[in-house]
Design goal:
It contains 14 helices and 22 strands. The chain folds into 3 domains: 278 residues, Glycosidases (TIM Barrel); 55 residues, Oligo-1,6-glucosidase, Domain 2 (Oligo-1,6-glucosidase, domain 2, Alpha-Beta Complex); 71 residues, Sandwich (Immunoglobulin-like), CATH 2.60.40. By secondary structure, the protein is an alpha/beta fold. β9, α6 and β10 form a beta-alpha-beta unit. The structure holds 6-O-alpha-D-glucopyranosyl-D-fructose.
């Protein structure tokens, strides 16, 4: 029987290669994850999202899958995975897997077969088109997400190209082909039968492509995006998966949907349409950039953030369901972001941001290390990074005549690798992550910011998250039907909102500045402070980054 457990889920994202290394090779693994399940239970989460552990050449850290039915050996074995599922379930923790089916690795047997045999039965599993001018030019001028052209010549062909919206080692699958869709269903069933509780569906709104394959107006990035974002058969394909697979399991899906809108999200998540349970939208992560491109950095503004929150909370009220997150493996850390501060008021501001997003209506996600306030890695050079994306960006910058150094500095600051450095468990040489040098550097501040220190300090962010989690669980009746009301829509310094429903209400008031802020204490109505990041409160004054939860 399907239930709505996803509305009660508190989800913790694990990036397996950087979480915990049990065998000392500097690379995280499944046994390491099992060894930390008690920690996650203590934190209070009841569901894990695992970034990909499938077999893969790791060009994009596992988002390039070569075998959906096996595990990348450095992570462990299928038996290890089965044990992890059981051990998690024994502790009341569900597991959702990353599902990457917009593309495979070019080392997947289907793609290898078409690269080797002209008459391969798998040709129609991918998107292959003849190039223009006798194959000298690609079929269209589209460009992908990693600042590469979206077409590469098929191995062993003079005039044919395959489409890839990410790296050239990640060929896109052809969802128009019913046989391919059956293969996807087989993969879903395999993992659900193994006991998995659902999927985080990678770039799922890219799976349907417009079939005209025409040139588009050239843009600095993502030329042709209208041809592959939210394509014409997206909803049909998702409903087919739901009807043929998910309907038979008590599972949940959260779709990663890039450049999404509220109307689209309602279509994707309204229960009667049977497509997905919720989606990730990225509007709030674009409040400190222009055009949704993180390299076009601009100063964060609370007013912009509040506008976005209002749009999504109001938009999905009683129509769909929101996911709530401030970090993931593609985003830089939230410390020093969204108005928070690295240095002075670091702890206060991290708590302030945490409370502000966590108590909105929706299912909250915590990315590994976020709960202890891990910071960006502060990379000094490209050599310290590992991500395929930043390598491509550096090549692009090298072709720009001006500002090379400045642009490279920005690229390092916003690089995805900032969130991918090893989880800091203690202050030992390799931060308790491993007993040897890790695949990417350990944060320089591991002596101060680590799990052991956080657990020992009763005032820490870790304990604050524990309290937020308890509150969210205890008040799930309010939240499930909760209406969001922005109490100070015009303030550029204070974020104040009320969540109310027939079962009760609560209020969050947060000062997003490092200055004291006056406010009208009537806002608090007759409510009592349940949680705050300061011990003492002033009547109509908020201290720097002070946040209050009132009920
Ligand atoms: O990370 C991004 C920008 O820096 C995003 O544009 C990201 O590429 C996009 O959100 C899709 O992300 C997902 O699919 C990618 C993979 O590299 C990401 O790690 C994954 O989250 C391709 O599978």
């Amino acid at each position: 029987m399907r239930t709505n457990w996803f509305k009660d889920a508190i989800i913790y994202q694990i990036y397996p290669r950087s979480f915990c290394d049990s065998d000392g090779d500097g690379f995280g693994d499944i046994k390491g994850i099992i060894s930390k399940l008690d920690y996650l239970k203590e934190l209070g989460v009841n569901c894990i999202w695992l970034s990909p552990i499938y077999d893969s050449p790791q060009v994009d850290n596992g988002y390039d899958i070569s075998n959906y039915y096996d595990i990348y050996p450095p992570f462990g074995t299928l038996d290890n995975a089965k044990k992890m599922i059981k051990e998690a379930h024994d502790r009341g923790i569900r597991i959702i897997m990353d599902l990457v089916v917009n593309h495979t690795s070019n080392q997947h047997k289907w793609f290898k077969d078409i690269s080797e045999h002209k008459d391969s039965p798998y040709r129609d599993y991918y998107i292959i088109k003849k190039g223009k001018k006798n194959g000298k030019k690609p079929p269209t001028n589209w460009s992908g997400f990693f600042s590469e052209k979206a077409w590469t010549k098929l191995p062993n062909s003079d005039d044919e190209y395959y489409l890839h919206l990410f790296a050239k080692e990640q060929p896109d699958l052809n969802w128009e082909n019913p046989k391919l869709r059956e293969e996807v269903k087989k993969i879903l069933k395999f993992w659900l039968d193994l006991g998995i509780d659902g999927f985080r569906c990678d770039v799922i709104n890219l799976i349907s492509k417009r079939q005209e394959f025409k040139n588009s107006f050239p843009l600095p990035a993502l030329t042709g995006f209208k041809n592959f974002i939210n394509g014409p058969r997206l909803h049909e394909f998702l409903h087919e998966l739901y009807k043929d697979v998910y309907a038979n399991y008590d599972s949940m899906t959260v779709g990663e949907t890039v450049f999404s809108t509220v109307p689209r999200a309602i279509e994707l998540t309204s229960p009667d349409r049977q497509e997905l349970e919720m989606i990730f939208n990225f509007d709030h992560t674009d409040t400190d950039n222009y055009f949704g491109i993180k390299y076009f950095y601009r100063k964060f503004s609370l007013k912009r953030l509040k506008k976005v929150v209002r749009k999504w909370q109001d938009g999905l009220y009683q129509k769909g369901w929101n996911s709530l997150f401030i970090e993931n493996h593609d985003q830089r850390r939230s410390v020093g972001r969204f108005g928070s501060s690295e240095g002075e008021y670091q702890l206060e501001s991290s708590k302030c941001i945490a409370m502000s997003y966590f108590l909105l209506v929706g299912t909250p996600f915590i990315y590994q290390g976020q709960e202890i306030g891990m910071t960006n890695a502060h990379f000094k050079s490209l050599e310290e990074t590992r991500d395929v994306e930043i390598r491509n960006i550096y090549k692009t910058i090298d072709n720009i005549p001006f500002f090379k150094n400045k642009l490279k500095k920005i690229a390092l600051e916003v690089s995805r690798d900032n969130a991918r450095t090893p989880m800091c468990w203690d202050n030992s040489e390799f931060a308790g992550f491993s007993t040897s040098q890790s695949w990417i550097k350990v944060n320089d501040n591991k002596d101060k910011i680590n799990v052991k220190a956080s657990k020992e300090d009763e005032n820490s962010l870790f304990h604050f998250y524990q309290k937020l989690i308890s509150f969210k669980k205890d008040n799930s009746d309010i939240i499930k039907n909760g209406k969001y009301i922005d109490l100070l829509p015009n303030s550029k310094n204070i974020f104040a909102y009320k969540i109310c429903s027939g079962s009760g209400e609560y209020i969050v008031i947060a000062n997003f500045t490092r200055q004291e802020q006056k406010y009208n204490s009537l806002l608090k109505a007759d409510k009592k402070v349940v949680l705050s990041n300061y011990k003492d409160h002033k009547d109509n004054l908020l201290q720097p980054y002070e946040c209050l939860l009132l009920k």
